[in-house]
Amino acid sequence: MVAKKAQSAGNTTKIRTSILSAALDVAATHAWEFVAMKQIADSAGLDIDDVTARFPTKADITAAIIDDLDTQVEEVFPDIDEDAPMRDRLFDVLMERIELANRNRAAHISFFKSFGWTKNATCQDITLLKSSMGRMAKCAGLETDGLFGGFYLAGLSVAYLWVLLTWINDTSPDLGKTMAELDRTLGRAESFKNYMKF
Asked: Model's pTM, two decimal places?
């Protein structure tokens, strides 16, 4: 019985991985907003019912991919370096996230370009972005509770989207332009945050 349960769990994980890998492959060559669930199922070599049983909508697939990405970042930063300035911590965390996304660059650019494609998608995408940036803020030790917490989180989300505009056109091996833009953007955000304290 235990062996059967373990085998079942293993199969479930394998199918999940196949679906998400297929979604990344399809997104890399197609505009994500126009991708159909059947394309993903065909790419994964699965029946569409097997896909929708685990991910009812394409938004659920996107959320799972982003969740996996954020989990990888959290694994890199299990502890907060309290001695490092907040700006440096945010830079390290966000740059790590971008570098991980860059491993599936074409797919994540496709996801980014589909952001807010429809009114319904806009609400889902904003919710997903806020959740993701909340996790990144926690990795860096940025407080997102209290009077200014929501404001900081919104600012971080906008800053990250702004930096991604540079990233999608940065084809350099070291992502130098992206790093420079992230540093500038965090600098501006830091100055504004300090100004708001007065």
From this structure: 0.90
Fold of 1-56: Arc Repressor Mutant, subunit A (1.10.10)
In this structure, the number of other CB atoms found within 10 A of the CB of residue 61 comes to 24
pLDDT in tens, 99-109: 999 999 999 99
Concatenating the DSSP letter of every residue in the chain gives: -HHHHHHHHHHHHHHHHHHHHHHHHHHHHS-GGG--HHHHHHHHT--HHHHHHH-SSHHHHHHHHHHHHHHHHHHH-SS--TTS-HHHHHHHHHHHHHHHHHTTHHHHHHHHHTTT-SHHHHHHHHHHHHHHHHHHHHHHT---SSTTHHHHHHHHHHHHHHHHHHHTT---TT-HHHHHHHHHHHHHHHHHHHHHT-
Residue listed under structure tokens 């492959």: 25
**pLDDT (tens digit per residue) in 133-142:** 999 999 999 9
Collect all residues with Cβ–Cβ distance below 8 Å to 136 and sequence separation of at least 6.
70, 73, 90, 93, 94, 97, 156, 160
Q: How many Å apart are CA 6 and CA 136, to the nearest integer? A: 32
Q: What is the pLDDT of residues 6-55, one digit of tens each?
A: 455 568 899 999 999 999 999 999 999 999 999 999 999 999 999 999 99
Judge contact between 11 and 25, C-beta under 8 A.
no
CA distance 129 to 125: 6
